[in-house]
Amino acid sequence: LSLGKELGSGEFKKVVAGQWRNEVDVAIKIMEGALNEDDLIKEATLMEKFQHDNLVKLYGVCIGQGPVYIITELNGNGSLLQYLCNNQHLVNKTDILLDMAIQICAAMKFLEQSGFIHRNLAARNCLVGDRNIVKVGSFSSARFVPDDEYKASVGAKYAVRWSAPEVITHARFSSKSDIWSYDLEWKIVGLRSQKETPFVVFGCDKTYL
């Protein structure tokens, strides 16, 4: 496994491009800091179950003395959010945008039918590959909920602006709250700049109210 250029970073991880066995292009999520290794294994185990054309495919996990690596397929155009911001001409390409939206719906339908909720659906957590193929990723918050409802623990964090009312008031997640979080429409339809955010004129406290 060889590591290449950095593709992005977050509080406890960074993502780099790489090659597996010198022939397969991959994305490598490198976990650092205080993240629980068991949680990472849980995320990888979930990804292994998700076999769908519009869900990011897991190749493997590397665990050793250093940081944990989660190895997935490479989607070379980055996040859907950044892709749309970098390609403003797509705002007027209704057929392309609609196709992207349908792909994401197909992925979320598969998750719901499999008994899972995503809990963090957003344009920043979808990746774009060749020919505008979109794949939903970022499954660290996903949960298996056969009864279609999950109550988060006290102190759990979530994005207020993209969360359904029942999530904000009672920390209750379901396939319906995933539908609410289909904030991708804010990015896909009428996107003009990266600053365009739901309820942007309000602070988080007023958004909550």
UniProtKB/TrEMBL annotation:
> What keywords is this UniProt entry annotated with?
ATP-binding, Nucleotide-binding
Molecular-function annotations in GO: ATP binding; protein kinase activity
Q: Where is the Protein kinase domain?
A: 1-209
Write down the PROSITE patterns for this protein, in alphabetical order.
PROTEIN_KINASE_DOM (PS50011)
Q: Which InterPro entries match?
A: Kinase-like_dom_sf, Non-receptor_tyrosine_kinases, Prot_kinase_dom, Ser-Thr/Tyr_kinase_cat_dom
Signal sequence bounds? none
SUPFAM superfamilies, sorted? Protein kinase-like (PK-like) (SSF56112)
Extract the Pfam families matched here.
PK_Tyr_Ser-Thr
Q: What is this protein called?
A: Protein kinase domain-containing protein
Q: Which organism is it from?
A: Amphimedon queenslandica
The taxonomy runs: Eukaryota, Metazoa, Porifera, Demospongiae, Heteroscleromorpha
